[in-house]
C-alpha cells in the first residue's frame, strides 16, 4: 500500500480525535496524525478520493498533499 499525506485543518485534540474516529470507521488504514503541522499520513489500500471524502466527514477543510515515499 502507498502512504498518502493529507492536510487537515486541525486545531486541537478534538479535531485529531474526529479524524481518528472517521478513519477507524472506514477501516483498513494505518495512519499518523501530526497535529502541529495539520497533517495526516495514511497507509491504505483505499484510493485517495475515498480517503479525502472520509477526512472531510470531520467537517474540517482537508486536501491531498501527495504520496509519501516509504522510508
From TrEMBL:
Keywords assigned: Chaperone, Copper, Copper transport, Ion transport, Metal-binding, Transport
Chain ranges of the HMA domain: 1-63
GO process annotations (BP): copper ion transport
Domain of life assignment: Eukaryota
InterPro entries: Copper_transport_ATOX1-like (IPR051881), HMA_dom (IPR006121), HMA_dom_sf (IPR036163)
GO terms for MF: copper chaperone activity; metal ion binding
PROSITE patterns documented for this protein: HMA_2 (PS50846)
CDD domains: HMA (cd00371)
Record's GO cellular component terms: cytosol
Family per similarity comment: Belongs to the ATX1 family.
Subunit structure: Homodimer. Interacts with ATP7B. Interacts with ATP7A. Interacts (via dimer form) with SLC31A1 (via C-terminal domain); this interaction improves ATOX1 stability and controls intracellular Cu(I) levels.
Function in brief: Binds and deliver cytosolic copper to the copper ATPase proteins. May be important in cellular antioxidant defense.
Protein name as annotated: Copper transport protein ATOX1
Organism: Malurus cyaneus samueli
Phylogenetic classification of the source organism: Eukaryota, Metazoa, Chordata, Craniata, Vertebrata
